[in-house]
Specification:
homodimer, mainly alpha, globular, DNA-binding
DNA sequence: CAAAAACCGGAGATGGTGCCTCGACTTCTT
DNA sequence: AAGAAGTCGAGGCACCATCTCCGGTTTTTG
């Protein structure tokens, strides 16, 4: 349960500048993987942090190790969210709230989306936290079903599917209208009710033709020359 | 409107074997791009057709030209579907039927999905056919809204979003359960009704934990060594 | 039937990418 | 001040997709 916060401390306490750089790398990794997904290069991360590639590879043996290190805490955060949602007064509200919050997190971080929905990244530690969440989510949904508010034919594995679907909407439109995913999720949640219940008011207006065209241009562009040179945040030269 | 079926006939009537191979290429392209998406290589297409790469490049100047050639007719087919849906008796049924049919087409052909939802492939011809569809779809949806069955706050540009979302579900699960997308689409369509209307019975059972795990393993796998050696259909050696 | 024209094949040229290493140099710690 | 720890980034390596080239084959023509 309680995990050591600094298991590396036993070996030797990194030199001061090294420790600082380590943190910079983690920060940059979050920013870069968040925006460009896990396909981003460690070279990109290094450049974003204003460091050399070698420095990154000295601290993290491989890309996977870096990814693992940065996402474990974020995953735990989501698990906590589920626990929290279980203690909501109204079961439906608890469930819906959980979905909104998690998708909100996903919407801002492409790397997180990929970690959560794929087993192709991260090591056993990531898998561990994910496994921990399954019973929580199951109970969360069963509770909402027993109260007669969530449709009874939904199963826990539908949740990753919903994340996947909304995630696709995010990826498709985020360049044009970063919050359009709310509209999509609202639509889906309306289909999840067991009780009739009037259609919810959609939280975001639809796109016009020009906007959807723009989205279609950005999607699946074979290669982007250099999306943007990430700024190099540095303090003292 | 009426397009020449064989505009190339004016130049010179390809040699017999060349014409045969041309058709083989088109067939193979459909199969390969359908399964692996537009990222597949012309080398793959050639190999699948049992031909050399050079042969393919002799017939089609570039990948884009080949893609254009194979999808124009399929796109027209979808436009026809829309026209057809407009003459359905019940506006809601017409709309829903159209969505089911188009997603059905998308579900079996990854290349088609990518062509339909991205402007990054194909030339002006593809764009032309797509533009032709916009007013049809608009009317189709307005008709269903005026009859009070489709929720009034939906707009035509929501349709590509729905395709995108279900398409993501297809891509995620098709290796595990090729028809699971029906479940997802049914869920979404339930959220599109204006009238309360009891929740529809889902047309496909949900996944179990092992299946979703399998889907998560297959998704975003960095590199696939050789997914499968496509069989080489040949007649006479 | 033979010559000419059209076509085929597939190795490899070309240009690109990503992961990671290495050795000369710099900074921190004691 | 010495030596341990850390940094840098060019470049090695391995991979990949697009498209070309030309000796050899098949079809058509006269």
């Amino acid at each position: 349960m309680t995990r050591d916060a600094a298991p590396a401390a036993s070996a030797r306490p990194l030199r001061r500048d090294a420790e600082l750089n380590r943190r910079r790398i983690l920060e940059s990794a979050r920013a870069v993987f968040g925006k460009r997904g896990l396909e981003a290069t460690l070279d990109d991360v290094a450049h974003h942090a204003g460091l050399g590639v070698g420095t990154v590879y000295r601290r993290f043996p491989s890309k996977e190790h870096l990814v693992e290190a940065m996402f474990v805490e974020q995953l735990q955060e989501i698990a906590d969210l589920a626990e929290q949602a279980l203690s909501a007064e109204d079961p439906w509200d608890g469930f819906v709230d959980f979905v909104w919050r998690t998708v909100e997190l996903h919407s801002g971080d492409r790397g997180l989306r990929e970690i959560m929905l794929s087993k192709a990244f991260g090591h056993e530690h990531v898998a561990e936290v994910k496994a921990h969440m399954v019973p929580l989510i199951t109970r969360l949904m069963e509770r909402a079903q027993e109260s007669g508010q969530l449709r009874a034919d939904l199963v826990p594995t539908d949740l990753p599917l919903i994340h996947q679907m909304v995630g696709a909407a995010v990826e498709y439109t985020s360049a044009v209208e970063p919050h359009l995913w709310r509209r999509c999720l609202a639509l889906i949640l309306d289909g999840l009710r067991a009780e009739p219940g009037r259609a919810t008011e959609l939280p975001h207006p639809g796109l016009d033709q020009a906007e959807i065209d723009q989205a279609m241009c950005a999607w699946r562009q074979p290669r982007h020359p250099h999306p943007a040179t990430p700024p190099i945040p540095r303090e003292k030269p």
